[in-house]
Amino acid sequence: MKKEYYDNYVTSISRQIHACDENEYGKTSAYFNTYISRFLPKNRNAAICDLGCGPGFFLYYLQQKAYTNIRGVDISKEQIAICKRMELNEVYLDDGIKYLKRNKNKFDICFSSNVMEHISKAVFHDFLKRIYESLKTKGKVILIVPNAAPFFSTFNLYFDITHERLFTAASLKQAFLTAGFKEVSVHSLLPREKGLFSLLRRYLFIVLIRFSRLLLINQIGLKAYRRFQPVYFTNEIIGIAEKK
Q: What is the pLDDT of residues 60-76, one digit of tens each?
């Protein structure tokens, strides 16, 4: 059943969200420049793999930034076709775990955005272990995942029929450490400031975050809240971990 969903992922699901036009590639590049660029290596020849590359938003961004040793992997034929239409030719139609097993100690960066929520608990740990094995020493994994902490998180879980789970900063950190990673950090992704409207949206979001924090403290108590720090209430969180 899941294979059928992914074979027709663009037609049935992602077309409701992504236009995959020049404007969207520009917007997503600005997003990556704001949130991801500081975690990327300065070496433009660094080996970077985008797992679950989708229509190639991140690969497009890397190409614009003159990274030359980049590749993407996706299980959807339709997504790969979009990548090739955008002249992102180093893309492979493959299962992520199988691909990683064939490419051990190869990458400086393994990146994945909004993919881990599609993977069941039974497979997720194995996937992280395969990522670990595919990285060179000092290589890093960068994961963007939907956050389970905000009050609207149920929407994040159910707006896509293929979603299996969400994450918190605590659970993402636990997963990294269990897979053998070190130097783990998790960060929130606040709305970008792009103009007056987005500035107002950002400050409204900050007010809502404070309100959500009070609700959570009221529910679980201040001591428990402090034990689970950091707790973020943004729509997405980003985790970075290093292979020693």
A: 999 999 999 999 999 99
